[in-house]
Amino acid sequence: MSGGLLQGTCGGMLKGCCHRTAKSANIGIDASTAVDLTNVPALEYGPVQNDPSCGISLAKQTAQRRIVGGDDAGFGSFPWQAYIRIGSSRCGGSLISRRHVVTAGHCVARATPRQVHVTLGDYVINSAVEPLPAYTFGVRTINVHPYFKFTPQADRFDVAVLTLERTVHFMPHIAPICLPEKNEDFLGKFGWAAGWGALNPGSRLRPKTLQAVDVPVLDNRGQPGIYHRVANTVDWISHITQIST
């Protein structure tokens, strides 16, 4: 991204970047409820491995400076976006290889693979009139991060990797996102959040069209309980994709 535009291999929620300066925010965290990670052992894995075609988006998405909500993303802007159905529940995710989708741990921690279905290439939910068709996949295995727990704190290793039942064929509107390397620093840049979630706090209404909004990457120093082990979590995600093909 440059000047608010999604560009080539720099696109996406996990790999998005921008040269605009992000203003730091004072996030109030109650230290009494924050997760103490000082005694959590680090999980050592090998280097992150990405698909050579990761991070490529054919469409450019204009950044929208909004606190809540978003705008229509544009067809194909986020080709890694996954729409995940778990029974009657819905979650979002990101395609990271030809067989794997990363999502939130709390979405699938209590589900069986047979209950989970992943749709790729979707843009307007339940619409058959789109430039290219969407494809739905069953799930073979669910790997939830070993340190994940159902707690109210923000830093809870809330991540899971789904192994799909069959191989994904990449298309103009279906492609994987890149996982960041451990030493990459995105502080002061902007990332993207995309999905079909509520546009207003507390609303039960959900948009049918994929939404996107850019969000600043903030410094977590002095903010206990805010994603302290992101780098190690990314290593774990990459490790799972290598052992569960």
From TrEMBL:
<dbReference type="InterPro" id="IPR009003">
    <property type="entry name" value="Peptidase_S1_PA"/>
</dbReference>
<dbReference type="GO" id="GO:0006508">
    <property type="term" value="P:proteolysis"/>
</dbReference>
<protein>
    <recommendedName>
        <fullName>Peptidase S1 domain-containing protein</fullName>
    </recommendedName>
</protein>
<dbReference type="InterPro" id="IPR018114">
    <property type="entry name" value="TRYPSIN_HIS"/>
</dbReference>
<dbReference type="Pfam" id="PF00089">
    <property type="entry name" value="Trypsin"/>
</dbReference>
<dbReference type="GO" id="GO:0004252">
    <property type="term" value="F:serine-type endopeptidase activity"/>
</dbReference>
<dbReference type="InterPro" id="IPR043504">
    <property type="entry name" value="Peptidase_S1_PA_chymotrypsin"/>
</dbReference>
<feature type="domain" description="Peptidase S1">
    <location>
        <begin position="67"/>
        <end position="220"/>
    </location>
</feature>
<comment type="similarity">
    <text>Belongs to the peptidase S1 family. CLIP subfamily.</text>
</comment>
<dbReference type="InterPro" id="IPR001254">
    <property type="entry name" value="Trypsin_dom"/>
</dbReference>
<keyword id="KW-1015">Disulfide bond</keyword>
